[in-house]
């Protein structure tokens, strides 16, 4: 099992939570970005740099993720593709994407995109708050707790 991170837009504070979780649990953490990122030296943490381009990192994550993996992303189309493959997906604010909610979220995202392209100012998301960080960490811990323990 692997935790895949859409790392280009992932907030540093969320990456730090993920780094600590990977070390604590010995779960493979793979950050995918189109630019080099500094990651802690660890057998559990790696960084993959993909070429620049629209959705290149997302496409790599979708290609590599398998059922049972976790994808960290705020990108709803990426989350929907991961969920369709049987992976779990979690956004940096702690919202878990599931088969039950991802299509509705994708529809709302597409609707908002249509509004923006027609000139309507929709604003952006608020800054990541302490409660968002706590929600993310709690959801991550719940996901980790549900994973099968390796045989020793």
Write the layout of secondary structure elements.
Elements: E1 2-6, H1 12-25, E2 28-33, E3 45-49, H2 56-64, E4 70-72, H3 76-84, E5 88-90, E6 96-97, H4 102-117, H5 130-145
Parallel strand pairs: 1-2, 1-4, 2-3, 4-5
Antiparallel strand pairs: 5-6
Strand-residue proportion? 15-25%
Oligomer: single chain
For the terminal residues, how far apart are their CA atoms? 16 Å
- Low-confidence blocks of residues: none
* Major pleated sheet: 6 strands, mixed
Classify the secondary structure makeup into a structural class.
alpha/beta
Helix/strand order, N-terminal first: EHEEHEHEEHH
Q: Order the strands across the largest sheet as they lie in space.
A: 3-2-1-4-5-6
Radius of gyration: 16 Å
> Got a strand count?
6
Notes on the structure:
The protein is α/β, with parallel strands linked by helices and 152 residues long. 42% of the residues lie in helices and 16% in strands. The chain is built from 5 helices and 6 strands. A 6-stranded mixed sheet has the order 3-2-1-4-5-6, with helices on both faces. Helix 3 links the parallel strand 4 and strand 5. Helix 1 runs parallel beside helix 5 and helix 3 packs antiparallel against helix 4. The longest helix is centred in the last third of the chain and has 16 residues. The mean pLDDT is 90.
């Amino acid at each position: 099992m692997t935790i895949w991170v859409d790392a280009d837009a992932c907030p540093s504070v969320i990456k730090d939570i993920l780094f600590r979780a990977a070390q604590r649990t010995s779960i493979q953490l793979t950050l995918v970005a189109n630019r080099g990122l500094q990651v802690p030296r660890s057998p559990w943490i790696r960084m993959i740099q993909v070429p620049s381009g629209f959705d290149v990192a997302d496409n790599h994550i979708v290609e590599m993720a398998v059922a049972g993996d976790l994808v960290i992303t705020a990108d709803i189309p990426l989350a929907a593709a991961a969920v369709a493959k049987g992976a779990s997906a979690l956004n940096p604010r702690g919202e878990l994407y599931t088969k039950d909610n991802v299509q509705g979220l994708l529809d709302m995202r597409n609707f908002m995109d249509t509004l923006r392209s027609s000139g309507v100012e929709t604003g952006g998301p608020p800054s990541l708050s302490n409660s968002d960080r706590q929600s993310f960490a709690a959801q991550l811990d719940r996901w980790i707790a549900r994973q099968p323990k390796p045989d020793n």
